[in-house]
Amino acid sequence: MRWILALSNPWTWRMAWRESRSRRGRLLLFGSSIVIGIAALIAIDSFRVSLTRAVEEQAKSLLGADLVVAGRSKFGAAEDAVLRAIGGRQSRETDLSSMVLFPATDGLRLAQVRGLDGDFPYYGALETDPPDAARRWREQGGALVDESLLAQFGAKPGDAVKVGELRTIVVGSLRRVPGDTLAFATLAPRVYLRQQDLEKANLIQLGSLGRYKCYIQLPPGQTAAKALKPVRKQMDQLRLGHTTAEKRQEDLGNAMERLSNFLSLVGFVALFLGGVGVANAIHTHVKEKLAHVAVLRCLGAGEAQTFAIYLAQALVLGAVASTAGVVLGVVVQSLFPFVLGDFLPVTVAFELRPARLLEGFGVGWAFCLLFAALPLLSIRHASPMGALRVASGMGSPRRIGWPEMLMGFLLCFASVVFAMSHTARKLHGVFFMGGLLAALLCLWGTAHALMLALRRRVPAAWPYPWRQGLSNLYRPNNRTTLLLLSLGLGTFVLLTLELTQGVLLRELTKDGGENRPNTVLFDIQPDQRDGVLALVRSNGVRVVEEAPIITMRLAKIQGRTTDQILASTNRQIAKWALRREYRCTWRDKLSGTETLTAGTWHPRFDAAKDPAPVSLEEGIAKDLGVGLGDEIVFDLQGVTIPTRVASLRKVEWRRVQPNFFVVFPPGVLESAPAFHVLATRATSPRQSAELQRSLVAKYPNVSVIDLSLVLSTLDSIVSKISLGIQFMAFFTVATGLLVLMGALWTSRKQRVRETALLRTLGASKGQIRTILMMEYASLGALAAVAASGLALLSSWALVHFLFHASFAPSFAPILAAGALIPGVTLVTGWWSSRGVLDVAPLEILREEG
Amino acid sequence: MQPKPLLEVDRLTKTYAGAHGTLTVLSEVSFSLAAGETCSIVGPSGSGKTTLLGLCAGLDRPSSGDVRVDGDSLGSLDEEALARFRSERVGFIFQSFQLLPMLTALENVMVPLELRGAPNPRGPAEDLLRTVGLADRQDHYPAQLSGGEQQRVAIARAFVNKPRVLFADEPTGNLDQETAQRVVDMLFELNASSQTALVLVTHNLELAAKAHQVIRLRGGRRVEVA
Ligand SMILES: Nc1ncnc2c1ncn2[C@@H]1O[C@H](COP(=O)(O)OP(=O)(O)OP(=O)(O)O)[C@@H](O)[C@H]1O
Ligand SMILES: [Mg+2]
Question: Exposed e or buried b for every residue in A217-226, given b needs 16+ CB within 10 A?
């Protein structure tokens, strides 16, 4: 530990400073590769802190109330009693899905219609345009309509709007509702009516699928937990759910944590790559200085003393880079609200937190030093004899002693700790680092395989400049490995994200041809079924599938009532699975999205043989802990229906089509009150629009989902999310470019010498240009190929293991990478060898230090 | 009177482990040198001159044999102690000058003193630069100096810490005859005036003959004058 002592000697620092003359600019340029990584981490971290604070501060407005009680059926006397017992100020809301029509343009779309009564929100406000629209709406009625919905149909405040049987005026466009995110609103645009107006729309018919809520502001001093305690039991019986502001804050906090963790990991890739760049810069620097080290040793400097001189340089480099990283990080932080704003239910203020900045500075500095330490250690091996043997410039053979191993271990350890602290499950952090190291190793292996292959055979028949350019890739002091790593890793990260996103989106949007429905009609009342069917057919729209829906609840599993199961201490079934409503159907055959995985399918039911054989979806069977032959009793509005699990099905949920957890055979439920769903296929958007218009005129309660609209909305949301992710991935690419530039600059001197030598030997500028071009283009192409291969592999793994989808990648991003990366490499190569060609051959005689 | 030896070299042997067995580059070489004396090492290329010099200065460790300076054996010193030994008692002059290119002439000369933590390194360094006739060039960088000037700076650097032994490996090898003459004269003058022992490796037989003692190496062995 003598070097610590040496570091406390001012002369060490003076010497380090003098010794860096004429290299400072270059060192800083190369050190800058880590700046971006540090900036990314600092930006995310500061943003996370601001976000958490914003969530805390705006916790109440996240819900707009202290407590929300919600149920699936219209509140009656029993519910009223419960709500009275809770007390406080209350405001009721009814949520329904319904078609909304703008007569001016004939625009029609399924929207979320909310009938509100009372003073909600108690915290925060309904943000509208014009600003006083919310007040006027409360007084005079009308509709507040989501601005995205108005924009879609070119409607504006003052226009007429039709909801069910109600025709009214849009009084304002809705910007923000406490608790909803913008992204959510674009998927299901909201229309606010007063409760009394919603009743006029006459949408709430028998058993219509609605959601009933009561927003509560508790009296001062009262907590949600205390208020709920006395009514817990009744609420359970009435199947009333609830959410509190605290719960919402917690959920949101967790979601935000996951988001920023994910972004941190992407940022860390940039940091890691930057670290590799720093290691390279220090490596080149040290190699150049080994002769000086030998002289210093001859003059009596000890091992620790010389090491300390260069360590001091690295310390300063790290400090400068980290400072720059902090500054850049603050700038980036101020950009986040623009990139992610649509997904945040709170407004995040920009603020500086010195403690966080200091922490980020420390992490950046530590990683910078860890990466610099490995090449620095080779200073120890510089023998003073080197000063006497001038030609020993190639450096001593690399030895790996315990300090190198310790540093390597520390670096891995620090990386894994960082990754683990940024993943919800510790194991994921290890996976992440493992994946990153594996990717680096693959790129490294590719570089070495390439060098080996080139050494073996470069076709002798190729023109000389080609061969020369290619053999530059394996000759001593080549940059092949580093360039492949820097170019490859950035490309790999970006391509992985791009491919994964593409596959997932296409999985959703792929239009399976003639038999895929694109317009789904639901909420069809039993007595409307025939009429709707006739209307659909008369519009020339084909019915792909029709299903009755009966809503039931669980009464018993294997003879035990749900209450008994819930009360038991060693319950393994989740409450939601026991309490939820099961929408069931009956049919005699499997649908196109289903496959039987166990048991037998019963196309008919013989009423003599109780219980009815039903088919369960695999996942729900697992959740309920039931298998083939187990008995389940359903409760249909007080009537019990005993069933037996006869088969299990696998359902492809991603296809938007009516899918069911439980399917009955025909002959059991025919007499029960059923809604109908029609999955249809219109041949054109126009036909679909025609159908929707004629439906809304005759059957205003029937809802229509235009799948193509849903998919395009989804698409725009996903691309917004991926913009945020790509924003981070971009840091990796930028770092890769910096490392590339650094690597090319460090080899510049060697380039100049080689070029001068070749010129002396009679090579033309054109030939030298070809040599350089060949070298860079082939490196870039190989990096693109290697990164594409890796990205295909990793996105396949992500899609397969994480999202459980089938992998059908698009090759457009790969082609783009294949064209872009060699191009960028070529340009950067050109840029960094500017002037190399202009060096007079004479230069080679003038050896500068 | 017989002066007490300052440098004693006792049966030094150096072998390298090569691909085809061990390679003996220096075999049982002995000699001794008193303060103020000079000694030259001559021999064909590859005969082990540089190796011997390096071993004497404690830059490398012998395979067997010992070097004593002022009666202290180098073999018993560890790396850090050897470094201190070099900084306190040894000076170096190289064929290719080996000035640190990032440091000015003055800064180069100051390095050995600074390494020892001497309180005022500037004074003696400036004095020595004046002695070698480069007082007006002290703020120049090595690249701005001619070869002869660089070697004079190197001589100043070698003497600045008042070494007991000075080692020079072909100090004139990269210089023309006239410049070489000046450098050599300066070297011998300074050596005599500061009572240093000088060990000089050279291909120049005329220069070698100026020394009190000539050691001839051939294939790593000391051979007597024919
Ligand atoms: N690290 C080493 N490994 C193996 N052999 C070495 C090593 N260093 C030197 N040698 C060999 O030792 C022998 C002596 O080398 P040395 O440098 O001492 O010769 P020299 O007399 O100084 O030659 P020159 O006049 O050319 O400088 C040479 O044959 C050289 O190849
Ligand atoms: Mg030699």
Answer: bbeeebebee
Q: Ligand 1, atom 24: nearest CA belongs to which residue?
A: B45
Q: ipTM of this model?
A: 0.85
Q: How far apart are CA A425 and CA A802, in angstroms?
A: 14
At A10, list the tokens: 């001012």
Residues B153-202 have pLDDT tens digits of 999 999 998 999 999 998 988 888 888 888 888 889 888 888 899 999 99
CA of A394 to the centre of ligand 1 (A): 16
Calpha distance A63→A692 (Å, rounded): 34
pLDDT bin (cut points 50, 70, 90) of residue A49 is confident
Topology (CATH level 3) of domain B5-223: Rossmann fold (3.40.50)
Residues A381, A395 contacting (CB under 8 angstroms):
no
**Is residue B25 lining ligand 1, measured as CB closer than 6 Å?**
yes
Asked whether the beta carbons of residue A304 and residue B80 sit closer than 8 angstroms, the reply is yes
Q: Cα–Cα distances in Å, from A166 out to A125, A138, A162, A199, A335?
A: 26, 17, 6, 9, 44
Asked if residues A617 and A585 have their Cβ atoms less than 8 Å apart, the reply is no
B115/A383 touch (CB, cutoff 8 Å), yes or no: no
Q: Which residue stretches of A242-379 are H helix?
A: 245-298, 303-333, 336-340, 354-377
B115 CB neighbours in chain A (<8 A) are: 11, 296, 299-301, 305
Q: Choose, out of B60, B90, B97, B98, the residue to mutate when testing the contact with A (most A CBs < 10 Å).
A: B98
The shortest C-alpha distance from A385 to chain B (Å) reads 6
Question: Sorting pLDDT into bands at 50, 70 and 90, what band is A205?
Answer: low
Token couple for B48: 């082990």
Closest CA to B28 of B15, B46, B43: B15
CA distance B97 to chain A (A): 10
What is the distance between the alpha carbons of residues A280 and A747, in angstroms, rounded to a whole number? 11
Query: For residues A360 and A354, what is the distance between their CA atoms, to the nearest angstrom?
Result: 10
Of all residues in chain B, the percent with pLDDT exceeding 70 is 98
Check whether A848 has a pLDDT greater than 50: no
A596/A618 Cα distance (integer angstroms): 9
Stretch (H or E) spanning A555: strand A542-557
List pLDDT tens digits, range A462-489: 887 788 788 778 877 677 888 888 888 8
Cα-based torsion angle of the residue sequence A94, A98, A100, A106 in order, rounded to the nearest 10 degrees: -170
Do B161 and A11 lie within an 8 Å CB cutoff?
A: no
- A717, A183 Cβ separation under 8 angstroms: yes
- Provide the shortest C-alpha distance from residue A297 to chain B (in Å): 7
Residues A769-822 have pLDDT tens digits of: 888 888 888 888 888 999 999 999 988 888 887 777 778 888 888 898 888 888
**pLDDT value at B65 more than 90:** yes
- Confirm if A795 and A809 have CB atoms less than 8 A apart: yes
**Structure tokens, A523:** 């909420």
In three-state secondary structure terms, A63 is coil
Euclidean distance between CA atoms B88 and A176, whole angstroms: 79
